[in-house]
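Q: I'm writing a short explainer about Magnesium transporter MgtE for a general audience and would like to include a description of its predicted shape. Could you first generate the structure from this sequence?
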Amino acid sequence: MSPPGPVDSIDLQEQRARLAALDVPDVVHELGRLAPTGRAVAFRLLDKGRAVEVFEDLDPALQAELVASLQGEAASIFGALDPDDRAALLDEVPAGVARRLLAALAPDERVATASLLGYPEGSAGRRMSPEVVAVHVGTTVGATIDRVRAAGEDAETVYLVPVVGDGLRVEGVVSLRRLVLSDPATPVEDVMTSPATTVHATDDAEDAANVVRDGGFVGVPVVDGEDRLVGVLTVDDAMRVLEAEDDEDSARTGGTEPLRRPYLSVSVLGLVRSRVVWLLMLIVAASLTVGVQSYFEDELAQVVALALFVPLLIGTGGNAGSQAATTVVRASAVGDVRTGDVARVVGREMLTGLLLGITLAVVGVGPAILVAGPQIGVVLALTVVAVCTLATTVGSSVPLLAKRVGIDPAIVSAPFISTFVDTTGLIVYFSIAKAVLGI
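A: Of course. Here's the predicted structure. Afterward I'll give you a sentence or two in plain language.
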C-alpha cells in the first residue's frame, strides 16, 4: 500500500491513525513534506517509543526545528538518542538550547556525548558511538557471549566485538556469528580476526566511512592517537556519512549548495540562498567569455560566419569538460582514483578528448562546409578537436589538484570548468581562424 499524502489537512484522530499505519521510514518521509507547524503537530501524535525512532531518522536540521517546538518533551527525546545522534543535533541548535539539553542528561550520558563533541567537526570521532561492547584478549568465547548479553542492550552494535589488550589497545575483532559457532571454552584470541581494521577518531568521516564500505564491515573500531579503543563506527552511520557526502557533491557539481534537508521543508528564501552565490560567481566568470568575443570583434566583422558556430563550440567544450569532471569526482569519491594518479588520469582523459574531438569533427565538418564553406569547415574541425582535448584535460586535472590542496573537488567541478573551457575554447577558435583564414 502506498503511503498517504501529507497529513496536515485532516483532523487529529485521523492523522494519528494514518501515521500509526506507516512504517518509520514512511513517517520520516511524510514529516519532511510538512511545514514546521504541521510537522510539530504530527510528531506529537506519535507514541513515545515510535517518536524516538522517527526522531533518530530525521535530518539534524528538522530535529533542531522540532526541539524548538517540543519544549519540555525535547529533553526526554534527546536523552533517548545515541550519543552520535545527539552530537549531530547539537551542531544544529543554538548554544543556549544545547547547554540545556546537555544539562538534562544523566551524568554518564552527558560524558559520552561531550566526548564526541571534543573531536573536530566532520571527523570519525563525531560519528562513532562510544557505547561499545569490548572484551579483553584473555577472555573465553563463553565469557564474551555473557558480556554481550549483559552490556549489549546499551551498545550501538553487538555484531562486532573489539578485543583489547592492556591499555585498551585493539588486538583484534570477533563477529557475533563466530562467537555463537565457537566452543564456549575456546579463548577469544583463537577466533578473533587480527590485526583488526581500525580508523582514528580524527580521520575524516568520509574516509572512515569508505573503510567500512570497501571492507564490507558491519563496523570498525575507532581508536585515539595511542591506538586505544574509544568507540565504533557502524555500517549504518557510515552509510549516512557517504549519503550526505554524495548529496553534497551532486549539489555542488550542479552549481548549488546542498539543502541538507527534504526539499519541501526548505523555504523559497532557502532555495534562493543555496543558488544565488553560485550564479553570481558564474556570471562573473562568464563575463570573460564576453571579453574574449569583444577582443576578437574585428575578426568576427571580417568573417561573420565565425559567429554562427560560437554556441556550438561553447556547448561542446563545456559538456566535454563537465563529463570528465563528473566522472573523476565520482571516481575520487569512491576511492577508484587518488591524488597521486593525476598524471595517469590526465593522460587517459587527454586521449579520450582527442578521440571524441576527432569523432565529432568527422561528423560535423560536412554540414559546416555546406553552411559556411570549406575553410570554415576546416577551422571548425580543428577547433572541435582542440577544444575537446582541452576540456577533458582540464576537467580531469582540476578536481584532483583541488583535492590535493584540501579543496572539495565538487566546488571547482562542472560549472567552473565549463566556464573556463568556454573562454579558452573561444581563444583557440579565433586563433585557429586567424591562422587558417589569414585574417
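A: For your explainer, you could say: Residues 342-372 form the longest helix (31 residues).
Q: Perfect, that's easy to follow.
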